[in-house]
Amino acid sequence: MNIFVGSLPFRMEEAELKELFEAYGEVASARIITDKFSGRSRGFGFVEMPDDAAAQKAIEELNNAEVGGRTIVVNQSEERKEGRRPSGDRRGGGGFDRGPRREY
Question: Mind listing the pLDDT tens digit for each residue in 21-57?
Fold first, then answer.
């Protein structure tokens, strides 16, 4: 099962994230998402656990737990759909119609 982990302390390392979940069972991978420009943590990550029962127990017990002074959010990750980005995409366009352009 793929698990989303949010509100992570920004100084947390992937090895620490993996260790946190290993208390509940085997962890196939633990990844903290980083900013592609600065390389700093974005404060969330994903943990893959092959045993769904162990993963569910980890979710139940770690959701809203305090880790490094922060209350983390833990839930089952949903498959990302291919294609368009979700609404709220801020890559440009402004999101509203400014009306006709005037030539001066």
Answer: 999 999 999 999 999 999 999 999 999 999 999 999 9
Tally the domains of the chain.
Answer: 1
CATH number of the domain that residue 26 is part of: 3.30.70.330
pTM of the shown model: 0.77
Q: How would DSSP label each residue in 37-59?
A: TT--EEEEEEEE-S-HHHHHHHH
List the domain range (segments joined by +) for residue 7. Answer: 2-76
Q: Taking the chain, what is the end-to-end CA distance rounded to the nearest angstrom?
A: 60
| Residue 83 CB neighbours (<10 A) | 5
Number of other residues whose CB lies within 10 A of the CB of residue 61: 12
Look at residue 83 and tell me if it is in a domain: no
